[in-house]
Amino acid sequence: MMKDVLSVGLIGAGSNAGGHARGIAANENIRLAAVMDIDRSRAEALATEYNARAYGVLDDLLNDPEVDAVHVCSIHKVHAEQVVAAARAGKHVLVEKPMALSVAECDRMIAACEDAGVVLMVGQVMRHFPVNLKVKALIQEGAIGEVGHMIRRRYGNFDPPDRSWYLDLELGGVCVLYCFGPHEYDILPWYIDSPVVKVYSQGSESAERYAGQKDSYSTIMNHKDGMVSVLTQTVVTHTGAHDTYIMGSEGSIWMTNQKLMVNGKEVPVDVTSRVGMPSQIAEFVDCCINGKVPDANGRSVRHTMAVIEAVKLSAESGEPVMVNGEDV
Questions:
Q1: How far apart are alpha carbons 37 and 318 in whole angstroms?
Q2: What confidence tens digit (pLDDT) does each residue in 41-97 have?
Q3: Residue 239: helix, strand or coil by DSSP?
Q4: Which tens digits make up the pLDDT trace of 144-197?
Q5: Phi, psi of 295 (to 5 degrees)
Q6: What DSSP designation does 285 have?
Q7: What are the structural domains, with CATH classification, of the chain?
């Protein structure tokens, strides 16, 4: 694609779409051309704000000749079918996390985009947070020697109103795994460039509002190169935490999304995580215009979703589950 400016359409007009629209506006070589939502009034409200066209039917947006690419910001259940439809229409795709609700759906998405010769990128925005990029660089430089162990916590109190679709297993999947897990299970192997090969997980239903699904998980992961990582998550605690401890042969790292400590001393991080979305969109534009492969491409993030699927199976069976990159 030899264009200077990428024209994109948003599929879905909820809160995630608003973040994408702001990220698009922060970049010079991309413009928002259209917004589609099954609730056309929501599409019209967001489209009017950015001087874009509004649609209430997906095919109408996909048939718009001015739309070069789409950002899929819809409910989790329809990610796969919408990505496949966009690929068949010749549109590049940036799909919000989770990539899909099953590895089988991920495979369909990858195949459709590869067959159509279009970019498939997944919104793993934490890969663009400055503190995470710095941590990855420090590990690659050997700043703490060989990494042996990582411990990550993500604790919060997620209480969506009115029995939101976030709590519907069919529409959203297990909330703690498929709303928040795609970030957490993605970033740990990304830090160390070592995929997960085995998981053992335990989960529980701790709060009444999550009746019928587990709201808290503790997972031990073995990585291909011998490291061990531990991830604990909950969406039902009123005292939150979101941090990572990384232990190496010659030192250690502790970090949050805005603060970084190496061997007990603070390392300045120039900017905050708010640059993540504009940076992610800038990478997507570069890949679409210049024929590059994004870091968070479909095959990369397929592994993340395979790990999550393995975690779910392990917690249900009480047994470790292997992850080999193709099957779980």
A1: 41
A2: 999 999 999 999 999 999 999 999 999 999 999 999 999 999 999 999 999 999 999
A3: strand
A4: 999 999 999 999 999 987 768 889 999 999 999 999 999 999 999 999 999 999
A5: -60, -50
A6: H
A7: 6-125+278-295 (3.40.50.720), 127-272+304-322 (3.30.360.10)
